Amino acid sequence: MSKGVLVDITRCVGCGSCEVACKMWNNLQYKQSVQDQGSGLDAENWTVVNRVETEKDNEPVWRFVKYQCLHCEEPACVSACFSKAIRKTKDGPVVYDVNLCVGCRYCMLVCPFNVPKYEWDKTFPQVRKCQMCADRVHAGESPACVGVCPAGALTYGERNNLLAMAKEKINGDSRYIKHVYGEKEAGGTSWLYISDIPFETLGFRTNITTTPLPHYTESILGLTPAVGLGWGALLTGMYVYNRRRNEINREEKKPGKK
Amino acid sequence: MAVSNRWRFTMTPTRYVLMVLGLVGVLLMVYRLVFGLGSSTNLNDEWPWGLWIGFDVLTGVALAGGGYSTALLVHIMGIKKFSPIARSAMLTSLIGYLLVMAGLFMDIGRWFNFWRPFVSWGYHSVLFEVFWCVSLYTMIQLLEFGEVATEKVQKRWHGFFKKIMPVLLIIGVLLPTLHQSSLGSLYVMEVGKLYPLWWSMLLPIFFLMSSFFVGPAMVTVETMLGARAHGHRPDLGVLQSLIKVSGYMMLVYLALKVGDLVYRGATGLVFTGNMEGNMFLLEMLIGVIIPIIICFTPKLRNSVGGLVTFGVLVVAGVIINRMNVVFTGMADFMGGAYFPSVIEWLVSIGLLAIGVLGYLFIVENFNVLPKHKHEHSHAPTPNVVVKGKKAVKYSA
């Protein structure tokens, strides 16, 4: 069954351990400027913790939002990749194989969460994003970030169980927003979020379609063979008909011409 | 129709300029391939697709649509009166596609891997269909040009090329129909990201239709330019009938566009006065509504000025449309900023210059344009006596 992670935003203290663990496990460069601000994902930052200053019950509050690839159940990037460089493993992680990548960057364009980033400073750049520590997950361990979280904000497990746990939590505690982010967004994601502050305030994209994105293009691509064959047959028919008609015309004209 | 065996390419000041531009373009392309996208373009994580995809590829493929629409009208539907423009339209299309391939090659980050999709089939991707169709269609067009080329070089192959033309022509209309629409399908995945004035499940149909009706417009512009350059009078009658094909298609396009906006409840967005709304209005007014008026007002359609205006407006309209889909419509969601770098501009301009030079060279050395009374005086082989407008006989 597919694994996932449940993020409880109310418990995150913004320590950044997960960022450090991610960098250590994946050998990512450490850049001081970005690290301080938590200002967004890039080729060397596969996960960031963003600080959001907002209000709750007319009191100013801070919330810390860990962000990374959400590992969609039916990922747009996988469906968009024309050389199969991105695929979803059966454990859940959406992983990237540089050997197959052409570098078209269509995955970056279609991701509803704006996750994949690029090594713009390299001659032969790679697409970079959280791989959900696929090798660890495959070996039955949790992703590196989950393992180090000291605040209990991250829970790793079967996605189904996590979803049930999330629902139990938000329904049993009046502080929570009654919405599990990632349950239905873009058709569902392996990473799930619960929060006491509305998700749009925290910088989440909330108007995402609940239809899995690949379904949009599959419905069109599915028509291709039929359209191709039908149109091909029609073209051939027209061609043959018109050639025959022209031949007849020529035959009829012949006597007068000579 | 025999063709002179000598090769010629007269250099004019314009051509020197084009050559310099082309050379600069080539040098910068080498620079880009060696030093990477980041150091030669202004692309970034917010704007992974820029000028090269938006203009060189998406717009280029549409503008090169003149080839398949003409092939359909002349060779498949057998409308003989359009045949004088067939070869030139198909040549422009071939050159257009070669430029698109070059632009695409510039834009892919790991270019040594360009062949991957031929063996690693990501068939659920729209881009897969685009990639296969565009590469195959370019091949087909090269073969189609074989028929023209073998009139001059490798003449013993001519019979062979004539024989396979029917198959090539049919595939050569089929493939573009599929990938012109797929280019639109690329943006169907941008649901919720692309501004609702442009995002629609009908995107593939819109892209297909506009690539078809821009064909005659391109042919018109090109014929007029060619006529001026070579000092002969263009056959206005052919162009007038040709743009009517566009006109009817544009009426359907306009109706579909409006219907689609009403159906999706997006009509209100047209007149909000924001950037997106205004650009949409501009695109529809310049590229569709005014041309339709010109097309269906006989006085305008029958004048040279009217024809040129029609051609230029429709081409501009399609360019604006593709730019709107790639940039204007995505800007709100993407955030960040992108404006093409000097290198991006110069590479695009350089490619265009090379295309124009290539077209001129082929037109001067092969039998592409219909021969007119004001034919150049350089002596053709004696057995050719051509007078009158139906001089050139087209095969297939």
Quote the distance from N terminus to C terminus of chain A.
82 Å
Number-wise, the strands of chain A total 9
Number of helices of chain B: 14
Assembly level: heterodimer
Q: Roughly what percent helix of chain B?
A: 55-70%
Number of strands of chain B: 0
Number of helices of chain A: 9
- Report low-confidence residues of chain B grouped into runs of 5 or more: 373-396
Q: What is the level 1 CATH name of the largest domain in chain A?
A: Alpha Beta
Largest sheet of chain A: 3 strands, mixed
What's the Cα radius of gyration of chain B?
Answer: 21 Å
CATH fold call of the largest domain in chain A: Alpha-Beta Plaits
Overall 3D form of chain A: elongated
Which two chains touch over the largest interface?
A-B, 53 and 54 residues
Q: What are the low-pLDDT stretches of chain A, counting only 5+ consecutive residues below 50?
A: none
Written as H for each helix and E for each strand, in order along the chain, the element string of chain A is EHHEEHEEHEEHHEHEHH
User: Globular, elongated, flat, extended or rod-shaped: what is the shape of chain B?
Assistant: globular
How many structural domains does the protein architecture of chain A include?
2
Task: Please characterize this protein's 3D structure.
The complex is a heterodimer of chains A (258) and B (396). Chain A is of the alpha+beta class and 258 residues long. Chain A has two domains: 222 residues, Alpha-Beta Plaits (2-Layer Sandwich), CATH 3.30.70; 35 residues. Chain A contains nine helices and nine strands. In chain A, a hairpin with an 8-residue loop joins strand 6 and strand 7. The model of chain A has no long low-confidence stretch (mean pLDDT 91). Chain B has 396 residues and is mostly helical. Helices cover 67% and strands 0% of the residues of chain B. In chain B, helix 10 runs antiparallel to helix 11. The radius of gyration of chain B is 21 Å and the shape is globular. The two termini of chain B are 14 Å apart. The C terminus of chain B is likely disordered. Chains A and B meet through helix 3, helix 4, strand 6, helix 8 and helix 9 of A and helix 2, helix 4, helix 7 and helix 8 of B.
